[in-house]
TrEMBL record:
<keyword id="KW-0472">Membrane</keyword>
<dbReference type="InterPro" id="IPR002816">
    <property type="entry name" value="TraB/PrgY/GumN_fam"/>
</dbReference>
<feature type="transmembrane region" description="Helical">
    <location>
        <begin position="437"/>
        <end position="458"/>
    </location>
</feature>
<dbReference type="InterPro" id="IPR046345">
    <property type="entry name" value="TraB_PrgY-like"/>
</dbReference>
<feature type="transmembrane region" description="Helical">
    <location>
        <begin position="503"/>
        <end position="526"/>
    </location>
</feature>
<feature type="transmembrane region" description="Helical">
    <location>
        <begin position="152"/>
        <end position="175"/>
    </location>
</feature>
<protein>
    <submittedName>
        <fullName>TraB family protein</fullName>
    </submittedName>
</protein>
<feature type="transmembrane region" description="Helical">
    <location>
        <begin position="212"/>
        <end position="233"/>
    </location>
</feature>
<feature type="transmembrane region" description="Helical">
    <location>
        <begin position="245"/>
        <end position="271"/>
    </location>
</feature>
<feature type="transmembrane region" description="Helical">
    <location>
        <begin position="181"/>
        <end position="200"/>
    </location>
</feature>
<dbReference type="Pfam" id="PF01963">
    <property type="entry name" value="TraB_PrgY_gumN"/>
</dbReference>
<keyword id="KW-1133">Transmembrane helix</keyword>
<feature type="transmembrane region" description="Helical">
    <location>
        <begin position="409"/>
        <end position="430"/>
    </location>
</feature>
<feature type="transmembrane region" description="Helical">
    <location>
        <begin position="382"/>
        <end position="403"/>
    </location>
</feature>
<keyword id="KW-0812">Transmembrane</keyword>
Length: 559
């Protein structure tokens, strides 16, 4: 497209596919033939510097761990990985079109303008514009696009089972879950896990990595089911080690997880049987594309067009806002009298050309930068304040019911201890430093009563003081995820060597530990430490009594 007005320059927009070899040749030929004053490229400063071989920007702790930034970065990683896979499929480095534009312009002695919005701003606004349900639907669509439904069902079943387990411990008696069943199940789990580790260690001397893992898991499961659950071997030893409380916790969690997995796998099998789910088989979908179809848009834009049916707000941040931002830059260059060739993803070309033809329709620049405002009612904040209020009311009502300070301190101490132990322990399992894990454990009691906070943020903040993380880690992770030959155990170990992945796992595991501890506190700990108060039911009755006493006190004060 050529635009020109008296006293102004003109702009030609060239739409490319970021993983297309044909696009690289088109860019080089166009720049050499046009010899414009400026070659404008769809890059920001950080991506340009990285593309030129510079050191990627380190990620500041305060930036990475503020609010939902961890999830935003994961979204960025997800998009980067998909683009990388497309580049591998077509044997072209992602972004090769932009690199060709820059290098050709430099060879010809032409100016280069970076006209795209900072990628971190774009991802932040993309994530912020999406509603909670939209994020869940998007994640589900991505999962069902890359995995068999039965596998996805198993993963989701595990997640559901972790929350179902405490309910089994609390209400299992009503559906026939006896103490003997919990003991046998816990024994099977402990015996099976120990056997699996020993068998894997022995098998690794003679079998390849993945085969050794399968041998360990299969043999451990068989030993646990037959010896531990069926014959009851080792029940006394396991019960003695775990105690009655530990046995109940392990047994009910295992039953909950198994139930969740069975339901998930069954649901996945039904979806497959009725043809309601079509898994992606490797890269078969890409075989159907020719380059003309691929040039329908760059990979990120193509993904977001698919997501637009899920989240108009998210697609607006990733596509429409960037069209306007880039158009602002190009209009300014045109008004300065420059002849410009703009190299952008084909998915942006139409929107940019419309703005160039009608610049009066451009939204204000200030509306395209900075933190995006989240639309709709702030349900997250309401939930956070609600959980905090319930926690405070719990202790206030017990005090109003006449429960002594010593008992209240005991309950609070148990809350503090179980949250701290689980959060710190899982953080350490993920590879956190002792100081980082300790900080996460110390604040877990407080953050677990407010969903707007998370102990993992604090653990991650301390971790980042010692281990720098930068956007270059995404490239390393993409290379590892593309490796189909390395055994899974070794591959996971290599991923933990990448600072970004380790940080994400430390943050996630700290939060998971605190969540599990909160469920365990309600379902297992309170019945034990408040047994003389009537357990959970007795504590609930005391809270009602405290509420009545509080209402009477307020009424007397007013009258």
């Amino acid at each position: 497209m050529n635009d020109s007005s008296p006293g102004e320059g003109h702009v030609r927009v060239v739409g490319t596919a970021h993983v297309s070899a044909d696009s690289v040749r088109e860019v080089e030929e166009t720049v050499r033939e046009e010899r414009p004053d400026v070659v404008a490229v769809e890059l920001d400063e950080g991506r340009y510097r990285q593309m030129k071989g510079g050191t990627p920007d380190d990620i500041e702790a305060r930036d990475l761990l503020r609010g939902n930034t961890v999830f935003q970065f994961i979204a960025y990683w997800m998009l980067s990985y998909v683009q990388s896979r497309m580049g591998d499929k077509f044997d072209v480095k992602p972004g090769a079109d932009m690199l060709a534009a820059v290098e050709t312009a430099e060879d010809e002695g032409l100016d280069v303008a970076l006209v795209d919005r900072d990628i971190q701003v774009t991802i932040q606004r993309f994530w912020r514009r999406m509603g909670t349900l939209e994020k869940v639907r998007m994640a589900g669509d991505l999962l069902f696009g890359v995995a068999d439904a039965r596998g996805v069902g198993a993963v989701l079943g595990i997640a559901v089972g972790v929350f179902l387990g405490p309910l089994v411990g609390l209400f299992g008696g009503a559906v026939g879950v006896t103490d003997l069943l919990l003991t046998r199940t816990a024994t099977a789990a402990v015996l099976g896990a120990a056997s699996a580790y020993l068998l894997y260690t022995a098998a690794s001397f003679s079998l390849d990595g993945d085969d050794a893992v399968l041998a360990g898991l299969g043999g451990g499961a068989a030993i646990g089911i037959v010896a531990g659950f069926g014959l009851g071997l080792g029940t006394g030893l396991v019960s003695g080690i775990l105690g009655s409380l530990g046995t109940a916790i392990v047994g009910s969690l295992v039953i909950g997880v198994l139930a969740g997995v069975v339901v998930g796998v069954t649901a996945g099998a039904v979806l497959n049987a009725f043809g309601l789910f079509v898994p992606a088989e490797g890269d078969a979908d890409y075989e159907e594309f020719d380059m003309a179809e691929l040039t329908d848009g760059d990979v990120v834009s193509a993904m977001m067009e698919e997501f637009r049916r899920f989240s108009p707000g998210g697609a607006e941040a990733l596509i429409d806002e960037r069209d306007a931002y880039i158009a602002h830059q190009l209009v300014a260059l045109r008004q300065s009298g420059r002849h410009v060739v703009a190299i952008v993803g084909a998915g942006h070309r139409e929107g940019i050309e419309n703005y160039l033809a009608h610049p009066e329709t451009l939204p204000p620049m200030e509306s395209l930068v900075g933190v995006a405002e989240k639309d709709g009612f702030p349900w997250g904040k309401l939930l956070g304040f609600g959980v905090t209020a319930v926690f405070i009311a719990f202790f206030v009502l017990l005090a109003m019911a006449g429960v002594g300070n010593e008992r209240l301190l005991t309950i609070f101490g148990a809350w503090f201890l179980i949250n701290g132990v689980f959060a710190a322990a899982l953080a350490k399992v993920a590879g956190a430093r002792w100081t980082s894990a300790l900080v996460g454990g110390l604040v877990a009691w407080m953050t677990s009563i407010n969903p707007l906070l998370a102990p993992g943020w604090f653990t991650g903040y301390v971790e980042l003081r010692h281990t720098p993380v930068n956007v270059g880690d995404i490239g390393k992770l993409n290379e590892l995820l593309s490796d189909e030959e390395t055994p899974i155990v070794e591959l996971v170990g290599q991923m933990f060597d990448v600072p970004l992945f380790k940080l994400i796992m430390v943050v996630a595991m700290t939060n998971i530990g605190s969540i599990i501890a909160s469920f365990l506190f309600v379902t297992y700990v309170i019945p034990v430490i408040a047994s003389d108060l009537g357990g959970v039911a007795g504590v609930a009755n005391l809270m009602f009594e405290g509420a009545r006493n509080s209402a009477d006190l307020i009424w007397r004060s007013l009258t």
